Amino acid sequence: HSAMPRRPIEPELGACIELAITNSFVSAAVDRELERRGISVTQAGLLRLIEQYGPITPSELERRTGLAASTLRDRTSVLVGSRYVARTRSATDGRSFVLQVTDAGRSYLAQVVPLVEDLEARLDRELGGQLAVFQEMLARIRAYVAPIGNNDPGR
After folding, report:
1. Given this model, what pLDDT does residue 15 score?
2. Chain segment 123-146, per-residue pLDDT in tens
3. Cα 78 to chain center, whole Å?
4. Distance between CA 143 and CA 35 in Å, rounded?
5. pLDDT band at 154 (very low <50, low <70, confident <90, very high)
6. Can you give the pLDDT at residue 87?
7. What own/partner pairs with CB < 8 Å and gap ≥ 24 does 25-33 have?
């Protein structure tokens, strides 16, 4: 494989806009990798987060993702409808619900995760082995902007 095409010369957009655009392209690249292998594209990133942190309340998932409650509700509904996620009453608080990955969801992720890891390995090679450094920078950016982007002044 050849290296990624170099970016054409264009006016400086700034880091925030570059991050937003890059997010769209990375999401599309993952979707295409899945489609090429005949795997349905179903909120794999969100499913991976639910697997990592579940069982998790929708409000905690909202806090971790920065997604609006309505967007998160729509996306988790797709996962519940696909039977990749179960929505059940919390064992500790019967009034709230938690989301948890099902066996079908784990089976789906078993197909998806290796493809994402392969894409990340290719990115790491393109970046001269610096992907971990970039991930650390992304984590620091997220930690900095998360409180700024939070719409709930009570948090």
Report:
1. 87
2. 999 999 999 999 999 999 999 998
3. 15
4. 32
5. very low
6. 96
7. 29/119, 30/115, 30/116, 30/119, 33/115, 33/116, 33/118, 33/119
Helix (DSSP H) and strand (DSSP E) numbers for the chain: 6, 2
Angle in degrees, 0-180, between the axes of helices 44-53 and 103-126, rounded to the nearest 10: 110
Residues in the chain, total = 155
* Short-list 138, 111, 108, CA closest to 47: 108
> Which among 145, 149, 140, 142 is positioned nearest to 68, based on CA atoms?
149
Residue 102 near residue 86, CB atoms below 8 Å: yes
pTM: 0.79
CA distance 108 to 112: 6
| Percentage above 70 pLDDT, the chain | 89
**DSSP-derived 3-state class of residue 26:** helix
Q: Which pLDDT tens digit goes with each residue over 59-77?
A: 999 999 888 899 999 999 9
100: which strand partners? Answer: 86
User: Considering only CA atoms, which of 104, 108, 98 is closest in space to residue 41?
Assistant: 108
